[in-house]
Amino acid sequence: MTSDVDTALPSPALAPTVADVMRPAVTTVEPGAHLAGAAYLMKHSGDNALVVTANERPVAMVTDTDITQAVADGRNLEEVRISDLPSREPIVVAPGTDVLTATRTMLLHGIHHLPVVDGERLVGIVDMTDLCRPLVG
C-alpha cells in the first residue's frame, strides 16, 4: 500500500524558518503582574502563553498551565505575582532558526512555546502549531 503523503523534508536551503511562521509577541507581561492580569490578557489576546519581559528582553514565560496550577492549588490569582512562580530563563530561538530545529528544541525541552529574539530583543513567539504547519502542509 502506498501513501499519497510526501514524507520528504524540504532541503535545508529551502526549509522554512521561524521568521516565516512566528507571530509578533504583541501581548507581553512584566514579572510583577498578577496572575489574574495575565489570565485576562491571555483571554483577550487569544494566546495561551505570554512572554514575561523586562526591558524588552524575555525573562520567563507564563502559560495557561501556570494559571490552572495556581487555581488547583487554591491560590488567589489577584495576589500571586508572576515573579512568585518558579521560573527559569526561557529557551529562545532566533528568527533565522529553521522550523525543524525549533520543533526539535521544543520536544527536547518539553515546552510548547518559544520566544523569538533578535539579539536580546523580543520580536515574536512561536508555538508547536505554528511550527507544525509548514512541516505537514
UniProtKB/TrEMBL annotation:
The keyword Lipoprotein does not apply. InterPro entries: CBS_dom, CBS_dom_sf, Diverse_CBS-Domain. It holds the Pfam family CBS. Keywords: CBS domain. The keyword Heme does not apply. Coiled coil: none annotated. Residues 22-79, 86-137 form the CBS domain. SUPFAM superfamilies: CBS-domain pair (SSF54631). This is CBS domain-containing protein. It comes from Petropleomorpha daqingensis. The lineage of its organism: Bacteria, Bacillati, Actinomycetota, Actinomycetes, Geodermatophilales.
